[in-house]
Amino acid sequence: MDGRPxxxxxxxxxxxxxxxxxxxxxxxxxxxxxxxxxxxxTQMICLLLVFQTPELPDQLGxxxxxxxxxxRPVDVVHARLAAQTHRRxxxxxxxxxxxxxxxxxxxxxxxxxxxDAAVSFYFHRANxxxxxxxxxxxxxxxxxxxxxxxxxxxxxxxxxxxxxxxxEYLDSLPGxxxxxxxxxxxxxxxxxxxxxxxxxxxxxDGSMRRLSAEFGIAVDEARWPGLVRAATFDEMRAGSAIVxxxxxxxxxxxxxxxxxxxSGDGRGLLSAEEVRRYRARAAALAPADLLTWLHRDREP
Length: 300
Fold this sequence. Notes:
four-stranded parallel beta sheet, 7% strand, single chain, alpha/beta
């Protein structure tokens, strides 16, 4: 442990304080992401490397628990992880400044073009059964009419301009840039690994081999084709009954959790002027070298 004070992140669905008292082990992998940035994809890749078979032995959310989520009691999550004998893969949506930093663990931060992540988040929100979520968390059931979201283009422009406290609204643009800027500042630390969603799309085999090397996991060459195929978007969507992260009726449609899996959706919805406005907002929120890496230096 590095002894630094942790930032406490809390929302109606998550609480980073659930990391308190967690006993790390040698080889633990912590996957820290913003929503809809490749979290489940990276969990799947890591689990495939650990088990080295295309067929996971259990549901992904059981094998790789989500630490912060209030759906399951924290003692249940800690106990499940303590009982695991395989190399542990732990999901979190907490930025690294809110997670205990242990030299025995590897911290994988996954980034996606924020406009694409926002579009995916728009559809993801619509797929969550809010009544069921309230039942699972133990909060009052939502009352009043369930108002539809604004049209996507209108919502996305509002998301770009919205300026909340980034530590309170982590899936906002300021929150996304806060999460990634913190990870970017740690990128040279030996146990911090940054992964870009576009790299997973462009070279899944190479990206998996990179993570295999980072984790020190040797994989028989004959196994690679099957492992890579199991991590493709189409295979994961086809296996959504196992791969989707929650199975307590939280999603209206489990298959819809894997909606599209491409890059460029966000930019395609905006005019050139709207993209320039987004880039100006991003430039005020994050360092230039991070943005060059994040946007792949695409001009508006």
